[in-house]
Amino acid sequence: MIFLIIIGMSLVTMIPRVIPAFIVDKLQFREWVNRWLNSIPYAALGALIFPGIMTVIPDRPYIGLAGGVAAVIMAYIGWNIVLVVIGSILAVFLLSM
Q1: Dist. CA 90–CA 70, nearest whole Å
Q2: pLDDT tens digits, residue range 45-94?
Q3: What parts of the sequence cross the membrane (predicted)?
Q4: Following DSSP, what letter does each residue of 29-45 receive, concatenated?
Q5: How far apart are CA 85 and CA 18, in angstroms?
Q6: What pLDDT is recorded for position 20?
């Protein structure tokens, strides 16, 4: 019985995720809709990262902001993502000493 419940729950979660993948491929959107859809991952990533930046050291949020600015500058220059992460961690570490 538990096995059937697990199968049912997996189908209920899988179906809403799989159906849009097949439908969206066949749809043609206007150019502005495509640009808007392409910017969603960046907005979601920013929404996930920004609260963490502000709470690195709760009583000194400017340190987290400085680390975030350092990461943006290194990414803009074109550094590898690993170097950007290490550089921003190093910036926060040096400023918090």
Answers
A1: 10
A2: 889 889 989 998 889 999 999 999 999 999 999 999 999 999 999 999 99
A3: 36-57, 69-95
A4: --HHHHHHHHHHHHHHH
A5: 33
A6: 83
CB contact at 8 A, 88 and 67? yes
Answer yes or no: pTM beyond 0.70.
Answer: no
DSSP H helical segments within 1-97, as ranges?
2-26, 31-54, 61-77, 81-96
Distance CA 70, CA 57 (A): 16
- Residue 89 CB: number of other CB atoms within 10 A? 14
Residue 30, both tokens:
């206007």
Name the helix (H) or strand (E) containing 97.
Answer: none
Residue at 10: amino acid letter: S
**Between the ranges 9-13, 31-35, 44-48, where is the mean pLDDT highest?**
9-13
